[in-house]
Amino acid sequence: MHPDLDGDARQERFLGLFLPEKGTVRAFIRSIVWDRIACEDLFQEVALVLWREFDRYDQGRPFGAWARGVAAKTVLKSLRQAKRTPVAVSGDTMRALEAAFDQLAFEEAQRPASRQEDALRHCVERLPDKSRALVHLRYRESLKVEEIAARVAGSPEAVQKALSRLREKLQKCVERRLRAA
Amino acid sequence: MTDQGDQGAVRPMGTRELIQRCLDGVASEIEAAELHRLVARDPGVARLLAEAARLESNLEIVMRSDAEAASAGAPVTMPPTRRLARRAIGTAAVVTALAAAFAIVWFARSTRVAHEPAVAEREPAKVVDPATRIRFADGSTADLRDPGTRLETRVSTADAIDLVLERGSARFEVVPRHSRRFRIWVGPAYVEVIGTIFTVDRIPTGVRVSVERGLVKVVSGQNEMRLSAGSAEVVPIAPAPEAALGDAPAERSDPRSQKAAARQRPAGDEPGALLHASEEARRKGHPEDAIASLQRLLEHHPRDPRAAYAAFILGRVLLEELDRPREAAAAFARVEVLDPRTPLLQDALAREVESWARAGDPDRVRQSAGAYLRRYPNGRRVEEVRRYSRME
Hints:
The structure holds 2 protein chains of 2 kinds. Chain A has 9 helices and no strands. Chain A has helices at residues 7-18, 22-32, 36-52, 63-82, 91-108, 113-125, 129-140, 145-152, 156-180. In chain A, helix 2 runs antiparallel to helix 5 and helix 4 runs antiparallel to helix 5. Chain A is globular. The relative contact order of chain A is 0.09. By secondary structure, chain B is α+β, with helices and mostly antiparallel strands. Chain B has 3 domains: 14-63, no CATH class; 134-238, Jelly Rolls, CATH 2.60.120; 265-391, Tetratricopeptide repeat domain (Serine Threonine Protein Phosphatase 5, Tetratricopeptide repeat, Alpha Horseshoe). Chain B has 13 helices and 14 strands. Chain B has helices spanning 14-23, 29-41, 43-71, 80-87, 241-244, 255-264, 271-283, 287-300, 307-321, 325-338, 345-359, 362-375, 382-391, and strands at 95-99, 104-108, 126-127, 134-135, 141-144, 150-156, 160-174, 181-186, 189-193, 196-203, 206-213, 215-220, 223-228, 232-236. In chain B, the strands form 2 sheets. In chain B, strands 3, 4, 5, 6, 7, 8, 9, 10, 11, 12, 13 and 14 form a 12-stranded mixed β-sheet that branches. In chain B, helix 7 (271-283) packs antiparallel against helix 8 (287-300) and helix 11 (345-359) runs antiparallel to helix 12. The longest helix of chain B is centred in the N-terminal third of the chain and has 29 residues, at 43-71. Chain B is globular and about 70 Å long. In chain B, 48% of the residues are buried. Classes of the chains: A mainly alpha, B alpha+beta.
């Protein structure tokens, strides 16, 4: 894309395009890679590939769509090599997710990631104490469902269901808050 | 969000639950295969998974940020949730920087793979509870003087404290400590403290600083003034975004007012358009116009993810194209305040050293070089920073 740019200008250009999109790129990887640590590792890897291949980016296309396309290929390759998911992810699944994220990114174009994060932080802070503690164990301490169950002396099924209900509640709260803004 | 598929039929509630089980890592292989099959067949399911993964990813980012804030020595006054966060420090994720050939690209990373410990000292933006006195780790305090005051801690480490007074008024009592930088930012201006008692009021036309004891320095653009005990000054600065749009303070929280204000903004005032305008202006050799666009972005969109990037570019234009090193130094210093985890931070700190060197201010060179070297003892720009230090 910018083979004529010097190092600094290339870096600036890349970061200017990448930073607003990194949230959806990470979420895209998270939709395929369900292990959080593996997701982080792959996100790093994808970012390096994006930087390396930045010269091939066609600026006529939305950067986010290009980045997720690169992420899809990188993730598929990595999953095949490392067998990181219990079942193979098909090309059809990947394409369907790419399309879903393109649509999501289009709808979110007017909502900067920082506003979404602020809204989410606000909603978490307003959860009842017990629910907030559960969110902390899962997302701040990065505990697995089984580990949380052991910590709170409950069953993994009950913890998982409680987390599901919480996320649904948070999703609604965030949407309400963003709409109000 | 509905549970409807591409045929419009209501899907069994199991789909949403299946997605949650997969994202929680408790799904069986059969369940995982079933979700993949559904996603490939049905755009409605792909959409549900995308939304759920987005929320999951955001939760991981937001909660990890708060954990880092707790581990970086955040203010002592905290609601119960913060105390819980402190217990979580041991396993909390941290941030690392990843250097590529010419660029650093910052991404979230777990503790297990952190490469650059200094980066973990950075603290993300955190809103301080305005209900009580805020006490910092070094014993310094801030008293918020009215309920509408909004004071954010952007950086709180052993070397530096950066606060942002978004609105209202606060009285600070800062413990003298030579090696630690203590700044209060009000828009693009900042008040820098050695050890003193003073009050900062954000007023519509600027910032009022009143000093009770000691000495403070107020920096706004290329202007810098020192205030001693008993003196008070109003420093004019660009209005806050809300004030610029003519909203009365009471109306700021009203969503209807905010929407009306957004409608008043010209389309060219969006961050992307402003960045584009600044690039065009630079390309055509009009750095002053580039600066105007970047400053506008920083005034109206300080929370946009591109704001730190805009401040960095502003610094470069001021330094390299306009030879205004003092203003450039302030712009580079602001990068961290706008986004303490930006991948541009290391470069911005080094550029700040360079700017002070070009401004011929040896004290600031020493101070900023020390800040860089403590944070990045093995950083890419160590030699360059040392060279500027030796020059002074």
